[in-house]
Structure to design on (598 residues):
């Protein structure tokens, strides 16, 4: 289990693979865009030309991609992981995908003698870089146990949630909570500012009481210093909320709050802020109110 | 400043007045229902027959009531605070009311030579009992400074937010954040449960990541042990969200997320859970889904 194939070197995958390298693992990387692989090659990674090639030298293949279609393509497409799969290989997907996709991948890989874990993460770029992600894992318990050393290199916690799909279910519910909390912070911060309250003082007050949240702590100060660089891009949050909304529909469950929050993220993307951090949703309110979160009138 | 009149001995007022007594203040209490005053009399409080009587022996009069109309009545009604007011008296209102009410009270009391602070609190019954509330205060800065010893008996923090009304503005924005966070927890918890995820494990997972919130920490376990005793009654959260929504309208500000969350609290009250804790909103989802937050099917 010392040879890891890592596929997908985006905002999250890059620091995750980097942490595996630093911990002494033998890492082979594949990324559609070559430049990112080159960066990791300087840190000692092998570079594969195809997903299949990343599998050949590896005991475990890790994928960290942006959407269900990309994961399907990398695993079952031309020169995909499955074409080089062999009995005993382990595939771990940390992408945020639909639980249906996770269960489908698990079934099809099982037919090839490959164990699969859906292992999406809580945390964004800073946590990925610091190696303190939280993994939510679904799949065979023995495989989960065997992979603990890998999880602990990239994360502070790995929770075993149940059989395949359970990781993705947990992740979508977790992101639903986070996204709604983000809007809780945004709407109330703008209400305070528009009332003439100092925004920094407002964030300090709420931090000490029952209204506190991780989102207010992380994204509040980011908004106030006008730093919209993506730790978690608004277009990706929108994608996740779309998955969560479809999950709710599959569960025959009304989700009124999630739905309106998703529309606000859709508004954010529609206004051209898709590549900015999800906290750029505040700009929609600022546009409506002709004021910034610092209380300055917009020119 | 050692003689305090305390008016309103509800869920919050009772422990707040109790803490003033324990700290050695000379407290005269008034409550519409006499039995509650009797409880505090056993702890050494004087009992007044009218609000005016509570004023006569006091340097500071504190009000903790449930709505704008009750505050107006207690201060400006028959035998109200104003009828016994004298130059130098300080009136502090910790009720959650509209900022317009706070500003109006301040103006009318100023004409009588009385200083007024709007000083609503973050925290519910447990924090009131432990004396660790957070006060958000609007009014004359010198009066705020003079009252610091009183705030520190009942709270861990008192923030000076600005002139009269600023305390109430902050409080409504704070409660908006808290209420939306409560629904974030509720909707995502039910999504996880309906997906077959263990609810206790789910709360543990989210507590360690960016989706964490005070509401998930405080109300999540309360929901799981089916404890709906009110720390903060759903009818009072509904009332506060109504005030927040009217504030937003006054500010000419769209609040799509607050609005849908308010409807969920309205649903909670309509279903007969108005006197239960606001976390009883989960029962609306449970009714829709025919499942409880523990994952058991409802009979």
């Amino acid at each position: 289990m010392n040879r890891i194939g890592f596929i997908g070197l985006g905002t999250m995958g890059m620091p995750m693979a980097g942490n595996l390298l630093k911990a002494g693992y033998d890492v082979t990387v594949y990324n559609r865009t070559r430049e990112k692989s080159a960066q990791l090659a300087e840190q000692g990674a092998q570079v594969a030309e195809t997903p299949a090639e990343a599998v050949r030298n590896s005991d475990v293949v890790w994928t960290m991609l942006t959407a269900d279609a990309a994961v399907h393509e990398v695993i079952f497409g031309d020169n995909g992981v499955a074409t080089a799969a062999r009995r005993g290989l382990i595939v771990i997907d940390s992408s945020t995908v639909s639980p249906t996709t996770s269960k489908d991948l698990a079934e099809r890989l099982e037919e090839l003698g490959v164990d699969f874990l859906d292992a999406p993460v809580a945390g964004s770029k800073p946590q990925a870089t610091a190696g303190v992600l939280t993994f939510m894992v679904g799949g065979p318990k023995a495989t989960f146990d065997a992979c603990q050393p890998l999880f602990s290199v990239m994360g502070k916690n790995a929770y075993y949630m149940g059989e395949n799909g359970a990781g993705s279910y947990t992740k979508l519910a977790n992101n639903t909570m986070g996204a709604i909390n983000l809007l809780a912070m945004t709407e109330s911060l703008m209400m305070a500012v528009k009332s003439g309250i100092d925004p920094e003082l407002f964030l300090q007050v709420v931090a000490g009481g029952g209204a506190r949240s991780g989102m207010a702590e992380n994204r509040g100060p980011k908004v106030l210093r006008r730093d919209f660089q993506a730790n978690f891009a608004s277009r990706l949050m929108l994608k996740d909320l779309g998955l969560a909304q479809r999950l709710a529909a599959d569960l025959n469950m009304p989700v009124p709050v999630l739905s309106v929050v998703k529309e606000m993220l859709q508004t954010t993307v529609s206004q051209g802020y898709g590549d900015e951090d999800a906290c750029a949703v505040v700009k929609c309110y600022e546009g409506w109110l002709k004021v910034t979160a610092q209380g300055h009138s917009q020119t």
Observations:
- The beta strands of chain B are 3-7, 26-30, 46-47, 60-63, 90-93, 115-118, 121-122, 133-138, 155-162.
